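Support request, priority: normal
Reporter: lab tech (M.K.)
Component: structure prediction queue

Hi team, I submitted a job for NUDIX hydrolase from Rhodococcus daqingensis yesterday, and the status page still shows it as pending. I've pasted the exact input below so you can check whether something in the sequence is tripping the parser. The sequence length should be 270 residues. Please let me know if I need to resubmit or if it's stuck on your end.
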Amino acid sequence: MATFDPHPEVAPKDASTVILVRDSESGPEVFMLRRVGGMAFAGGMTVFPGGGVDPQDADADVAWSGPPVSWWAERFGVDEGRAKALVCAAVRETFEECGVLLAGPTADTVVADTAGYAQARKQLEARELSFSQFLARENLVLRADLLRPWANWITPVGEGRRYDTRFFVAAAPTGQIADGETSEAAEVTWQTPEQAVTDWTEGRTMLLPPTWSQLRAIGEYDTVAEVLAAEPEIPVILPTLYQEEDGSWRVRFPGQEPYYAAAAHPWAKR
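Reply from support: The job had stalled in the queue. We restarted it manually and it finished. Here are the results:
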C-alpha cells in the first residue's frame, strides 16, 4: 500500500463552510450546491456553501451580536484573530454563494429579503467591496448567534490545494431565499441528508468525505431545533490519502467503512 504524495507539503489555508438547515415534513433539509466542474478545488463536487478566509475577514470591524470572539476561539482551538476571521468568512461566503445573509438591522433581527443587496453581493464576490464595508454601509449587525460550531476537517497532505475548514450550522432565515446566483455553482438544491447520500450512492453526485460525514451527522436529528441545540465535540480530522494494492486511491478517515461500501469515491480513477 503506497502513500500518495505527488505535491510538496502545502500549508492548509483557513476556510469556513456553513451547513444551512430548514425543517420539512421529512425532517431537516440541507442546502447543497454542485460546484462548477472546471474549478481548481472540488470541481464538480456537491458541497455546502463556503470558501477560504479572506485577509480582510481578520481585520473586519463589524457590529457583532452573539457569543464573543473569545468563545469561538475556545470552541475551535484558535486565537481570537483567526476565530473572528472564520466567523466573518462563514457569514460572507454564505451570502456570496447562495444569497443568505446572517445579519440584521439590529442585534436581534435578521434581514427579511436580500434581493436589494444583489449588486453588493457581486462586488463582494469580486473582492471589490469588503464585508465590513458592506455591513457598515447598510447598518447591519453580524448575527454570530445564528451560527453553531460543528466540525473541523483538514485537506489531506499530498493535495495541491489544502484547507483547514471549520464547519458551522445555521437555520435558514425565514423569508430569505437560498439560490445559485454565483459563478461557482452549477446547480443548487434543498435535500434531506438521506436524499443527498442516496444521490451520491446512485452516482448522480460526488461527495467528499467531509461532506458525506456531515450529512450523516445531520441526519441523526429530527428537527432543526435539535441540530442547533447539539454541542458536538470538534476534533481536528486530518484524513490520509493512500493507494490500495489494486491502484485505487482512498482517504483514511474516522467512520470511513460505510463511505467506501456504498459508492465509488472521487479518487478512484486518479
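The chain has a mean pLDDT of 89. The radius of gyration is 18 Å. Let us know if anything else looks off. Ticket resolved.
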